[in-house]
Write a structure and sequence with these properties.
binds 2'-deoxycytidine-5'-monophosphate; alpha/beta; 11 helices; single chain
């Protein structure tokens, strides 16, 4: 009888600045390993969409708390496109959460400690069985400090803005490059300086600068770390 090899299931944390290619890389790594993929930025975007649509001020913490009890965020894989799409209260809002109006407010929402606590708790539940690739800002530091593979991604801000501009253009939204650069700079600043689980590189995260890399190279880099984590001799 053939022996069955059961691979250890890991948590792979991919953190870093906005628009460095985290999601594209994480998605491809998850597909290669048959792991689940969780885009945690989509969750903060969905909360932002909910608050804006319900005219809830980000400063009205009573209403924000109420909203967090009421709203429901989940993910569903679109079989046709292979994309993982975010559902807010059971409705697919994947395209809505990517619009600039959400990008312009999401960092203000994601600084709110009660929002972070709710999202981190849900992310920890989603990854409790491991076998997951999660991308965000605080995965390797706060959500899964025990992740076996931690990658911290960065890239030149102009290159990042050009990539984001092309993505938006593909969806029919034309945005000047300067506006995107300003949005990225503002988000990087807010994300890195907030009090609650700020964006920072975990001490044990490997740095990946994607300025001059193509997606395949980024994916290979992460998969090499995965192999090292799976097959490293135990000391
Ligand atoms: O990855 P993204 O650009 O879709 O994320 C949107 C925003 O959500 C980002 O500006 C900061 C916030 N975010 C966060 O605070 N923590 C995470 N784990 C993921 C995203």
């Amino acid at each position: 009888m053939a022996a069955r090899v059961v691979m250890k299931q890991l948590v792979i944390a991919i953190d870093g600045y906005s628009s460095c290619g985290k999601s594209t890389t994480a998605k491809a790594v998850a597909a290669a390993l048959h792991y689940a993929y969780v885009d945690t930025g989509a969750m903060y975007r969905a909360v932002t969409l909910y608050l804006l649509e319900h005219n809830i001020s980000f400063e009205d913490l009573g209403q924000v708390e109420q909203a967090l009890h009421t709203l429901h965020i989940s993910f569903r894989r679109n079989r046709r496109t292979g994309r993982n799409e975010v559902l807010l209260d059971g409705v697919n809002r994947e395209d809505d959460i990517r619009q600039m109006v959400i990008s312009n407010s999401v960092s203000e929402v994601s600084v709110i400690p009660m929002v972070r606590h709710a999202m981190v708790a849900q992310q920890q539940r989603m990854g409790r069985k491991r076998g997951v690739v999660m991308d965000g800002r605080d995965i390797g530091t706060t959500v899964f400090p025990d992740a076996e593979v931690k990658v911290f991604m960065t890239a030149d801000v102009v290159v990042r803005a050009q990539r984001r501009q092309a993505e938006l253009a593909e969806k029919g939204e034309q945005v000047p490059l300067e506006d995107i650069i300003e949005n990225l700079r503002k988000r990087d600043h807010l994300d890195s300086t907030r009090a609650e689980s700020p964006l920072r590189r975990a001490a044990d995260a490997v740095l990946l600068d994607t300025t001059h890399l193509v997606i395949d190279e980024q994916v290979d880099f992460v998969l090499e770390r995965v192999s090292a984590a799976l097959f490293a001799p135990r000391g």
